[in-house]
Amino acid sequence: GAVVSQHPSRVICKSGTSVKIECRSLDFQATTMFWYRQFPKKSLMLMATSNEGSKATYEQGVEKDKFLINHASLTLSTLTVTSAHPEDSSFYICSARGTAEKLFFGSGTQLSVL
Amino acid sequence: RKEVEQDPGPFNVPEGATVAFNCTYSNSASQSFFWYRQDCRKEPKLLMSVYSSGNEDGRFTAQLNRASQYISLLIRDSKLSDSATYLCVANTGNQFYFGTGTSLTVIP
User: What number of other Cβ atoms are within 10 A of residue A44's Cβ?
Assistant: First the structure.
């Protein structure tokens, strides 16, 4: 099956620093990747749709200057949380569209901002 | 109205019970549907695709009713390891719409 690799799995950082999260499709090309965040015991919230070679499409209420998304190749999308603050602490998950319209997820990144 | 509506539960059932989850979707143009399972602090994992003809994988049966715009998941002979959150997903064009998830706890 399709594999999506996400790194790092856990980040602890100081307030004001920027954090980059990588999402790679290992055995297939993904023209579209998705980024989500999830708070404890809450549902997945789509943040943005990342399209290879073009600008990401952000969901309403998600600051594009705060959450920078780059999808420079068919196998890699990155999410950078700029000037992270404690309220940005969350579980961030990426996913990629694979064959047969199925969605495959990275293992997630737990971000803790102190 | 949300694209996908799902009863959040929680469902607490004894081992061996049969439990069913339903999910409705609002966009008749949605073309494919899936059930995902998510364990606490883990990523969602694909459980099964859902077809109009119905599909079965061991103790799990999924069904799609396009006329009524709902999908269902039936779990027979529940195991403790089935405890998780189950997410229904509708794919419309380039977007995937998730339900809020239904929490299932199987009790010994």
Answer: 26
